[in-house]
Amino acid sequence: MIGSLRGTLTAAWRNPSGRSGLVVLGALIAFALVGPIVLPDPTRIPELGQGATGPSLSHWFGTDHFGRDLLARLATGARISLAIAAIAVALSLSIGTAVGIIAGSFGGAVDRILMRIVDAALALPRLFILLLLLAVWERIPIPALVAVIGATGWFGTSRLVRGEVLRLKHEGFVQAAVALGAGRTRTIFRHLLPNVAGVILVSATLSMGDVILLEAGLSYLGVGIQPPTPSWGVMVFDARNSFTTAPWTLFFPGALVVVTVLATGLVSDALRAAFDPRSA
Amino acid sequence: MSRWLLRRLVDAVVTFLLVAVLVFVLMRLAPGDPLDRLTEDRPMAPAEQARLRTLFGLDQPLGTQFVRFAEAAVRGDFGASIEYYPTRVTDLVTSRLGPSLLLGFTVLLVNLIGGVWLGVLQARRRGSRLDRWLTRLSLAGYAAPSFWLGWMLVSLFAIKWRLLPAAQMTDPLLPPDAGWLSRAADVGAHLILPAVTLSIVSLAATMRYQRSAMLEVLRLDFVFAARARGLSERRVIWRHAWRNALFPILTLLGLWLPILVTGAVFVEQVFNWPGLGSLTAGAVMTRDYPVLMATALLVAAAVLISGILTDLAHRWLDPRTRDG
Amino acid sequence: MTPLLTVDNLRVTFPRAAGPSTPVDGVSFAIDRGERVALVGESGSGKSLTCLALLRLIPNPGVIAPGSSIRLDGTEVLSLEGEALRAIRGGRIGLVFQDPMTSLNPVLTVGYQVREAVTAHRNMSRAEARDRTIALLDEVGIPDPAERADAYPHQLSGGLRQRVMIAIALAGEPDLLVADEPTTALDVTIQAQILELLDRIRARRNMAVLLITHDLGVVAGRTDRVMVMYAGQIIETAPTARLFAAPAHPYTQALLQSMPRLTGPVGRLVSIGGSVPDPTAWPTGCRFHPRCDRRITPCAGEVPPWRAAGPGQEARCWLIEGVAP
Q1: Under CATH, domain A5-37+71-279 is a member of which superfamily?
Q2: Looking at the partner chain, which of A129, A222, A250 has a beta carbon nearest the beta carbon of B151?
Q3: B89-321 carries CATH number 1.10.3720.10
Q4: What is the ipTM for the molecules in this complex?
Q5: What is the pLDDT of residues A229-242, one digit of tens each?
């Protein structure tokens, strides 16, 4: 399994789009890790309020209307956004995989009940589920936000994994393992899990982008990351009317979201092409 | 056929009831009750708070609250809006439906014409430079936060270049005796920016689905066979291949509605479009939870109904299931 | 008299990561008007690609290599484009595919599919096209053709579907009917019926027929001449009776030996060891030499030339002593 995973990553790296996606993601992660350390405090409002200033040598990306360094705010925003995406996606993939495997391998009433719940959850767009939950939540702490985003993203994955489990159940090697007396858990972990790894990986990269957009949207609506903590969504909201006076304050946070989500999309495409060359 | 439809309808109703439970549970999952959050922004006397709690039934036990909510929801009555008190939520939602449908159908049309055509083009030129760049461009559109894209477009086209109106659906300065033609032109001009924004963020999904559905079909024998009998390429692509690639696209329409609705929340907020999206965004910002619950249930109903409609269309278009 | 179809040095290449692959590599043959010819080979020999190439239907990313030539009545098919190429497809050369289930469009009625083949090559009114469609369905032996025209492919049996495919191939009044394994996907009992139908139609219309098959048993008694294909090349061509009586190439001999016979002494059924080589790396010299149990010194190194082996019979093998043609 590790071998095939490495092979897939190599194939994604060979794909020119996939490689540029991986390079950009790498750069963004470096920016998120190093930026907040070397750049000025993104929340401190200078006493000599000079308002928004354009890009200059001391502030490469300019400052916002409070005079705060935009690059520093973007870096902290990147750290928060990427961390939320990574943790929330890991959480929802674990739940989704577990539910999918349980539904697929147990079948019967368990399967029916689980899938009925998933149906109901899928009928409600994820944004609405989160809005219902967050609209009444007073200043939600970031860990709770991550947990909530993660807990609302597994429905699609569980369907996918369940389908894959059902397909594999009828394949020779799994039936052979069961015929040889392998227990249910053993069959799941030794045979099913490695085979659904591909589906999971593609869906993981895809939902990274979705979560980044979602978190930006929630923060924009004021129910996600709370100021003064900088986040890309809040930065867009604060700068929404400043384009004519300080275009950089509106342009950069949104453009960074585009770049990040685009990069995850390119990586996801490359991975999918590596798993299923016919789709490329 | 009718038995199948009946089963499908019963399924949808059961799912909808589950959604209703879900909506109720979600609202009550957060610590505190809706009024706590409300009073954070609006200082209120404790007596006033208690009065409001009684008014909205928040002093009752959870079970009673749910029964009340369910009863009201079945009657299509979600009580009064908090922000627009005492306007009934139902009236509020009804008045916002038209503009949302106008925007939604415009974007649907752009997707069905532009997205489908581009997706087919990509499939025909699979692996070409054009195919690769269209994939990247559409992906970039998908990657753009719709609210940011909206504000960028407003800033450029409405504020900087003054080409198009920035907000609302109609010009308040339009004389009341204006003819229907100038009224339609006015709405059309207001529609352009929101529709373009929503189209950009939603087009990628349509293109990708169309492209991969078409690729699946283009390698099938009957496409070769159609070419071998000397048919024009246009006929081979649209009559033979695309007719068969239509089924996955129908499935997409079911999946696509949530994307559209999600985008509409932000885009309508940016452009102050008087639809359900801006109503929802406003309800979030003002913690107007009865409105939020109503729009969520309406969206779920729309998703479930569109699912049934696409299944129906699927069965009607596919002769293999038509007589089955 | 010039032949109806002349194929000269046909090469089909596919770009591959490991270098170009050439599944059809220098195929040349000619077919006369009204002639019945068989192209025989194992799967992977390049025979199906050869017949797709006749209509310029090589699937992407494959290409017909420069230097190839396909002439129909003196017209170079490889230089045709658009309208003129479509006139050949179905109009001059009709193609019957292997699997009628997958080569008929599942969402269009069979009548519609025949009708569009009719109108693709002739301008006619709707009523005329409908009459012509029903006449064609009748000619290929479909009972109640007027009624069946409104059926969808899934509502017909496999045999009827293949008859519909033949009707489509006949719609443009072609001079050459190419049938690519027309019976492989069908039940054994239906196979003979379809082959007989092809025979009858050919006789009535005086078309040439190119029958592509992996099964020499199908060929006997139904064709005038057989071409045997191996590893992207034709390696032997002979009048059908001659080929069965005195095969010249060791590969043809092995093919015949692997075929069960109903007459004569019951011999051993021989299967050929090994499999068809990979088109990215054809063997040097004679391409059959790695599997040939009679190979001699030059086989591995040098490409054998065409040598006459009997009346109308030629083969590419170093073992053949020059016989005057």
Answers
A1: MetI-like (1.10.3720.10)
A2: A250
A3: yes
A4: 0.88
A5: 889 999 999 888 88
